[in-house]
Amino acid sequence: MFGTGLLKGLGVTLKHFTDTFTDDRRKEPSRYEGSIKLDDGRRIIDQPITQEGLLTIQYPEERRLLPERFRYIPMLLWDTEIGEDRCTACGICAKVCPPQCIWIVRDSDENGKPITRPAEFYIDVAVCMSCSFCAEFCPFDAIKMNHDYELAVYDRYPQLVYDKEELTVPLEYYAALWPTQFAEEQAHRAKEKEEELRRNEEKKRAAAAKAQAKAAGVAEAGDGAAKPKRSKEELDALKAQAAAKAAAKKEGGADAGAVETGNAEAPVAEDAEAAAKRARLEELKRKAAEKAAQRKKEGGA
Amino acid sequence: MSEATMVAAPPVADPSLPYNDTVAGAVVGTWADDTDQALFVAPDKLLALLTHLRDAEQYDLLSSVTCVDYSAYKGKARAGISERFDVVYHLYSTKKGGGPVRLHVRVPDGDTVPSATGVYPGANLQEREVYDLFGITFEGHPNLRRVLTWEGFNGHPLRKDWQEAYFDEETKPFKNRHPAGSYQWHEDKLPWGDNNTYPAGWDPDSWEAPVSYVPVSQAPHRGFGELDTQSIVINLGPHHPSTHGVFRMLTRMEGETILALEPEMGYLHRNHEKIGERNTWLMNMPFTDRLDYINSMSNNLGYALAVEKLLDIEVPERAQYIRVIMAELTRIINHTWSIGFILNDLGALQTPALYAIEEREMILDLFEEVSGARLMCNYMRFGGVVRDLTPGWEERAKYLVHDRLPRALDQLDELLSGNEIVKARGRGVGYLSAQDLIALSVTGPMIRAAGVPYDIRKAEPYCIYDRFDFDIPTLAESDIYARYYIRLLEARESVKILQQALRDLPPGQINAYASATLSQGFGTIMGGKGGYTFRPVEGEAYARVEAPKGELGYYIVSDNKTNAYRYHVRSPSYINLNALGPMSVGYKIADAVVILGAIDIVLGEVDR
Ligand code: SF4
Ligand code: SF4
């Protein structure tokens, strides 16, 4: 019969309408279930995938919960433990950046000798394409992706050319934003430190042995030949070590994944997530306060 | 002198070379080192060879026409090339499937190449693009005008000696970023106006002569018997909600009936390929996101496959599965999106569109969780993907593909497929025969809605698509309704693939290298200093994937440097527009809107 298709289609919209209506009445599950409450009634919404329909997020009163890997604009890390920038001005991020929007001036001491510290560090965030290559390839974990996306200003230049000051955040900020990755990196660093200590020990011993050998009057001609040979061996050993480490890590990672997926609804995972959420919330609060202060300052100026 | 060379030329044609027995003297050599078969063709024999390949060898699809400027080539293997330009053709067979026949035609600067449009009408837009960006004249092309840049553009941007305003350096990374850090902001340099140059003898103020829009200006006008009627020209766009972006349909109308229609594009042209040739190989990856910005995952995949061909990398199992999962999720996004907007173009404003893209949000959430971004995923790397799935991701994806997505697709089906208005507007509108579509180089859902079961996932399987059990749905009607419905059917097949892929997803590595990050070993394995630069072997590769919109191909040439020597994107959105004019003629102007909508274009990919 002509019109049945139309009616069927209208049935679908009608069902949507009633579903939405009853859902709103029932508030079950409430749209705020699992959401995080900020001050002033602001909320961060995280819709579970099993909840029907789509929640409208009333931005800016409400926001989405961002996943850890969310990437927007890079930030530079200030290592609060040692009170230093992590960046060594090696320039890798500037080289790998696709739109070439990073530029760095390396610092130098009073004699003009370059030192491993940036004097200036700029990112033209109007040009940045949020690819996160800089964060991926920085060998010192000094640059990471920030989650802050509310960057609107009135003028592109110079407001959107961020200098070192604007880019730098304390390590804790990063730790709160990227808890999983931060933990991984910390573990990696600890391991590396151990390795280095061990290597230093070995080197010392080797040096001592060499000195002894020299003292014993071993022919100096052998030295030149031995040097590259030794370094090559060392290299090979290092390579093997790295490979083993990588393999171990992978296995560990896979196992962890298997465990997690085995009991998806485990309360442990739940707790970790809640903790992460809370930590992030704290951070957002802090950030908001900072922003407000800054705005006040700008307004006064 | 020239006569002597003319006389001397024919013996070069070696009878042992392919096709020389049928088209004598056409193939003058081969490119031996390539994995794909590449033949050098004498320019004057090109058309005869193309005709032979089409008629006798069943190579009915001229997939890609592009060009390479060899004037700055630094590699060793092709150092002896004397002709500056190399026009490259890729032919495929929709009947036999399998790999391409690749033809190269070499010409010095200033020479012309015979136009393939007489044999393959689909060469139309691609030859215009080569003319525009390289300045090669195709003899016999019916409408050889600039297509991506405008008439007052100075020079041909993909020539190696062309430099843009604010030119910095030939290749990235630019030296002034570190350690001196003397980068200057563009705003500091030149004010507006001074960065413009015009071709010699071209004056913007006195320029009046209208460009000859050939099909539109030469459209026949019949009139209505005794009545003194006129046909009129109507511009749809460039700013028009029906064009899905900045795009213009130039139409000549007789009453409400379309006599001729021509697409005009390039408003969003950003010279993606030139940027790609200055970038290092890795830097191109996030740029591919910005082509078809609805489907960044499949763009990533195509580019990764092309470079992996040159690098000769084995991709680990887990990464293969993850890639397929991402590519198929993206296909569902694209198809539901496109269904929604076909309906929008039909006048069913917003309700079907919003219903259709609801699940897209859920998929984008999943993308964001693994890659960090919803649209610009930048997720694939050479040798795998950049990061592993997060804990719990698989469960959510499984819920989606087993429960939510099938339900949503059923609902969409129920909402739209039986609707009498959709049928009345869609049935029999925008018809073009399968043969015509293939001749126009159209690929993707469009030809499957015309009954051609051609899908690269089956015809020339890449990744691990040969392991999955799925069908290629086809419909015979080749009209708007079929183009709507085929997308629904294809989305269902994608769900099938996803269910299998998520079931079989093995544990293990996600990248052929320990990790994509430098600190964990990428650098040491991949080309010495720093994993962010590496030098693929000299050569060329063409990789194509069945992107949601059609065949997405990447043609890359390496001269063993850290940057791509040539980087070309064969974009389905652009090439499918070949069919827009022929498809619209004879229908009403209101139908033109939905005919365009059913091609499913994204201007980021059309204009590049
Ligand atoms: S941020 Fe990292 S990569 Fe960039 S200069 Fe500093 S240390 Fe080097
Ligand atoms: S995120 Fe990408 S574009 Fe932005 S600064 Fe880092 S490397 Fe450059």
Concise account of the structure shown:
By secondary structure, chain A is of the alpha+beta class. Chain A contains 8 helices and 10 strands. With 608 residues, chain B is an alpha+beta fold.
Word description of this protein:
The complex is a heterodimer of chains A (301) and B (608). With 301 residues, chain A is of the alpha+beta class. Among the domains of chain A are: 9-64, no CATH class; 74-171, Alpha-Beta Plaits; 178-209. Chain A is built from eight helices and ten strands. Chain A has helices spanning 4-26, 92-96, 133-137, 164-167, 171-177, 179-215, 221-262, 267-300; strands spanning 36-37, 43-45, 62-64, 73-79, 84-85, 102-108, 114-124, 143-146, 161-162, 168-170. The longest helix of chain A is centred in the last third of the chain and has 42 residues, at 221-262. Chain A starts with a helix and ends with a helix. Mean pLDDT of chain A is 73; it is low at 218-230 and 248-270. By secondary structure, chain B is an alpha+beta fold. In chain B, 35% of the residues lie in helices and 15% in strands. In chain B, the strands form six sheets. In chain B, strands 1-2-5-4-3 form a five-stranded mixed β-sheet, covered by helices on one side. In chain B, strand 4 (85-92) and strand 5 (101-107) form a beta hairpin. In chain B, helix 8 (317-346) runs antiparallel to helix 10 (358-371) and helix 11 (393-416) packs antiparallel against helix 16 (480-504). The longest helix of chain B has 30 residues, at 317-346. The two termini of chain B are 44 Å apart. In chain B, 53% of the residues are buried. Chains A and B meet through helix 1, helix 2, strand 6, strand 7 and helix 3 of A and helix 6, helix 10, helix 11 and helix 12 of B. One iron/sulfur cluster (SF4) is lined by residues 74, 97-99, 101-102, 123, 128-134 of chain A.
